[in-house]
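User: quick one, fold this
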Amino acid sequence: MSERIAPRSTGDEGPTGGSTPAGGAPAARVSLSERIQSGLSSAKSEPRAKGPTVTRAASTGTPSATGSGAKTETRQPDRRAKSAPKKAPRRARLRLTRIDPWSVMKTSFLLSVAFGVVTFVAVFMVWTVLGAAGVWESINATVASVVEADDDSSGFDVTDYVGTGRVLGFTLLVSVIDVILLTAIATLTAFLYNMAAALLGGIEVTLAEDER
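Assistant:
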């Protein structure tokens, strides 16, 4: 029988290579499972490369990709932001250059009619109250006591001059005249103002907003 002689290694390999160091005792062989475990442990000990992380921008809310070493900064709203200063009310300087005579005539006519009706009703109420209070009888008695004759007869009656019918008729006539005059005067005033504004520019008015 022939015997196999294992070759003797001459290099200085480590204990994992299965060879013996120079001048030393032969080292034990490392099994395959131990090699696999040592390879896994060395792979775990190595740092893993960090991939890109996705962060949301604080201002826009859209995702943005950053590298492993980049730091993301989020902007938070300043809660101590001072309130905006109160604005002063705006002012506008305008000029009244023209007045429409037709609109002035309609407005003045309506107002003069209302004024005439109020005057008529007021006179009617006053004369009715005076008649109910006995003022006219008192006036008639006073005049009769002054100008009465020896026969104790007097034909004076104050209601013949300032009676309710006479006064209301006169008030109605005055109200109609006032309506005509006030309407005509207001319309003529509008025409005169337009002529003056064409020459001088009109009245300047400054308008401002309410501060509240």
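User: anything notable?
Assistant: The first helix runs from residue 32 to 45.
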